Amino acid sequence: xxxxxxxxxxxxxxxxxxxxxxxxxxxxxxxxxxxxxxxxxxxxxxxxxxxxxxxxxxxxxxxxxxxxxxxxxxxxxxxxxxxxxxxxxxxxxxxxxxxxxxxxxxxxxxxxxxxxxxxxxxxxxxxxxxxxxxxxxxxxxxxxxxxxxxxxxxxxxxxxxxxxxxxxxxxxxxxxxxxxxxxxxxxxxxxxxxxxxxxxxxxxxxxxxxxxxxxxxxxxxxxxxxxxxxxxxxxxxxxxxxxxxxxxxxxxxxxxxxxxxxxxxxxxxxxxxxxxxxxxxxxxxxxxxxxxxxxxxxxxxxxxxxxxxxxxxxxxxxxxxxxxxxxxxxxxxxxxxxxxxxxxxxxxxxxxxxxxxxxxxxxxxxxxxxxxxxxxxxxxxxxxxxxxxxxxxxxxxxx
Length: 399
Ligand SMILES: *Cc1c(COP(=O)(O)O)cnc(C)c1O
Known about the structure:
Layout (H helix, E strand, L loop, with lengths): L6 H12 L20 H11 L7 H14 L3 E5 L2 H11 L7 E5 L4 H9 L3 E5 L10 H11 E4 L2 E4 L6 E4 L11 H10 L5 E3 L7 E2 L2 E2 L6 E5 L12 E5 L2 H10 L24 H11 L2 H19 L5 E3 L6 E2 L5 E5 L4 H17 L5 E2 L19 H6 L3 E4 L5 H4 L1
Parallel strand pairs: 2-3, 2-6, 7-10
Antiparallel strand pairs: 1-11, 4-5, 8-9, 8-13, 10-11, 12-14, 14-16, 15-16
Helix pairs in contact: 1-10, 1-11, 2-9, 3-9, 4-5, 6-7
This protein binds pyridoxal-5'-phosphate.
Pyridoxal-5'-phosphate binds next to helix 4 and helix 5.
């Protein structure tokens, strides 16, 4: 029997990095920070000019800054990350009653966006090394259930069309997305990347979200930069970008006065107020990424010698944004890990350090229990072993 780390030892390690805290003034997982940015000036300019809503120069500027930072040809800002995913899936042709292949290890929004189109999530296992969709598991699952029928790819077990592959870059660590892309390509399936957590993450010098047809970002309150609520689509495809803009603006034909719409569109565009906040933080993005890298390094140093835990490493050949820095319990089976993690969560919350476990896998949630799925052994195993540490870039200043 190998040793497991005690909750006290882990907590002490965390406190060495982020300092001590209290129930009254806890340390959260990831908090917004506008200090040292032009956020107030930019937001005030919206109020001063009256340009607060879903058109305005901050929206275009935010989109340009996102495109130039990520290397995307086009960025389209929308109201949140879930909407960005729903729109992206629609744009690649996902229709009601289709199936979309995705990992069960994600935030619930990934599967919800599929459901919002009337489509069905079909779960495939992850790789423990990066927590993302496993290209080998994807390939075997397709081999096992998919067949061509009258020019369409059909799941032979359910009879439904398989319409897209949707990997997730979990906690900002790039999935094996080049390999996933070649599997998807081989089966003629479009690739949509949920890069909600991966602004500032690259695999082999390509930014997450740009490996397939389209990728999506989120600027929710706990993400690396936040617009209050917000999201974006990234793509190198000019035609897809044009359709994204059109459908997210009620499919209105450009005209000085006429209300002429040529499709059922959505009202998905990001308001100028939110975009102003976004621009102020993109300007500060490289500093944040550097602070996060140093924070992850400090945690790694502290936990290097503690038996029974490991810091989730940056995948090989990648630059991760370290959005959430995670600790993995090793040396234990999943059931033991679950008990050990519960003890740690209780001790940490009592000390005002608000650790969070990784998500309950989506196939365990009531609405996705009956979704089609391949083997999910690694998903089920990792679900009990991971806990996220306070990861705000501003923590670096405090220690
Ligand atoms: C945050 C997040 C989303 C959803 O973004 P919202 O802006 O909250 O709608 C989707 N997928 C993942 C993996 C996320 O972390």
